[in-house]
Specification:
There is one protein chain. This protein has 235 residues and is mainly α. Helix content is 80%, strand content 0%. It contains 10 helices and no strands. The protein is globular. The N and C termini lie far apart (52 Å).
C-alpha cells in the first residue's frame, strides 16, 4: 500500500510539473491516435453511410462481417501490419516499420470498423425517419449519403470519439509495429507496460492518470454532444 501511495503521489508530481518525458510521450500518443481516427473517419463514415443507404444482394452478410471486425484482435492486426511493412514484405521498401506512421496504420485498421459500424447504424436510423421526404424530393443514393451524414453529425461525432477511445488505449498492435523505441515510437500504453515491468511505478502511474483523464474527458464530451443534439432536436 505504501508503494502504491508513493507511486501515486510521484505520478501526480510528474504530471503537475509537466515532466518533459511525460509530455513527449503524451504528445506522440495523441498524434498517433488522432491521425488514425482521421484516416478511419475518411474511410469509415462514407462506407457506413453507403451500407445504410444502398440495397444489394449480400448486404446483410457485409454488415455482419463489419460488425465482427469491431472485435479484431489487436495483436493479429499488429502482426499483419508488421508482415506488410517488414523488409521481406510488399511494403518493406517504404521503410515504415518502427515509425509512428506504422502505428497509425495499425490503429486505423482497428478503428475503421468501429466508426463504419456505428455510422451505418446512425445513418440507417435517420434514413428510416427521412426516407419519405428524400423520395418525394427525388434525392439519389449518393446525395442521400451526404445529406444523412450531415444531419447525423452529432451521432457521428460520438462514433469518432468511440474510435479515439479505442485507439488511445491500444497497446498490442502498436508495440509490435512501433517497437516502443524511446523518443521515437513510445506512447502512453506501451510506456505504462514497460515501466511497470521495470518497477518504475511513478512514471507508469503518471501516464495512467493522464490516460484515465483523457478517457473521462472523452466520455464527458460524448455526453455533452448528445445533450446538445437532443436540445437542438426539440428546439
Amino acid at each position: 500500500m505504501q508503494d502504491f501511495s508513493a507511486a501515486f503521489g510521484e505520478g501526480w508530481r510528474l504530471m503537475l510539473a509537466l515532466d518533459p518525458e511525460l509530455i513527449e510521450i503524451v504528445a506522440l500518443s495523441l498524434q498517433v491516435s488522432l491521425g488514425a481516427v482521421a484516416l478511419a473517419a475518411l474511410i469509415g463514415l462514407p462506407l457506413g453511410a453507403l451500407l445504410a443507404v444502398l440495397r444489394f444482394p449480400g448486404r446483410q452478410g457485409v454488415i455482419v462481417f463489419l460488425n465482427a471486425l469491431m472485435g479484431l484482435p489487436p495483436v493479429v492486426v499488429g502482426l499483419s501490419v508488421y508482415l506488410l511493412l517488414s523488409r521481406a514484405g510488399p511494403l518493406g521498401p517504404l521503410g515504415l516499420l518502427y515509425t509512428p506512421e506504422a502505428m497509425i496504420v495499425a490503429q486505423t485498421i482497428l478503428v475503421t470498423p468501429i466508426i463504419a459500424a456505428l455510422a451505418r447504424q446512425s445513418v440507417e436510423d435517420l434514413k428510416g425517419e427521412y426516407e419519405e421526404q428524400l423520395t418525394v424530393l427525388g434525392v439519389g443514393p449518393l446525395a442521400a449519403v451526404f445529406t444523412l451524414l450531415w444531419d447525423g453529425r452529432y451521432s457521428l461525432i460520438t462514433a469518432l470519439l468511440a474510435g479515439f477511445g479505442r485507439a488511445v488505449a491500444e497497446v498490442g498492435a502498436v508495440i509490435i509495429v512501433g517497437g516502443n523505441i524511446a523518443h521515437v515510437t513510445r506512447v502512453m500504453t506501451t510506456t505504462i507496460a514497460l515501466e511497470t515491468s521495470k518497477g518504475d511505478l511513478a512514471l507508469a502511474m503518471g501516464l495512467g492518470l493522464i490516460l484515465v483523464s483523457i478517457t473521462i474527458a472523452v466520455n464527458a464530451l460524448v455526453g455533452g454532444l448528445r445533450l446538445t443534439a437532443a436540445r437542438s432536436a426539440y428546439a
